[in-house]
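Posting this for the archive.
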Amino acid sequence: MNVGIIGIGRIAGKYLNPVYKNPKYNLFALCDLKDSAEETSRIYNALFYTNYKEMLQHEEMDFVIITTPPNTHFEIAKNCLLRKKNVILEKPAVLNMEELNVLFELSQKNNVSFDVIFHWMHGNEVLYLKDKIGTFGDIKRIESTVLDPYTDEHLHIKDEYIGLEGSWFDSGINCLSLLSCFMDIRKLHLVEKTYIYDEKVHQDIYSKHQYVMDDIDISITVDWRYRANHKYTNIYFAKDVLYIDHSRQIILLNNELLVDLNNGDRLENHYKNYFERYTYNLNNNDTILTLHDILLGDK
């Protein structure tokens, strides 16, 4: 299958090897506004474009991966779907539900697939736990925390991260997608939310959302204020506590190592696992819609 990638920036670097090394795919064409990205295309023996519309017009691709900033997703995805290309979008897909519904309609009208990669769902540690979490009993509480070093010493968002649209949009959806692996997130009820903003760019650098679902307390915290890069989740049961260290791809049970699944770059593993399972006949529209509905509704 011929694959095109639009947007050869920071996150796209995590896609390249998983696609290139998978024998199912041919990393066929890359597109980026910056001419400097052409060097990457040479490394992977792929065609290079600076205009994605020209790439769509001239090249035959089975699907296109879009890894540009979220505020550009809708227009690019729309044009790809109109060209009858199967589309994979990096999360979050779009910044409002109207645009998301349009993309689904175009996908159906043109008989092509449309998917969004919620990459946390495909982490080694998450896939391992997804099949085993029921063995620990009923969940009582979940605390998911994301720390990223995206601000400078003045607590202003660094230029290269402004396109992420703030802490909640960038990582809240990762935590929500994780929850969706273990529970029906349509039942989430928002109790309280707290934000701290970088007023210079009017984006949040800290967000905390507290939910309840039946008798389960859930919190999601995303913090960009410190020079830390750590992602972890605590899941509390009646007797046991699971500590999921997403950064190190390990799980502790009651402070004892349960499993070590670290076999390489964390993000590359996410995309490797996703593309190994990718199929055009995806039936996850409900998941995509639900995750974005919560993400956008609870902003």
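The first helix runs from residue 13 to 20. The chain has nine helices and 14 strands.
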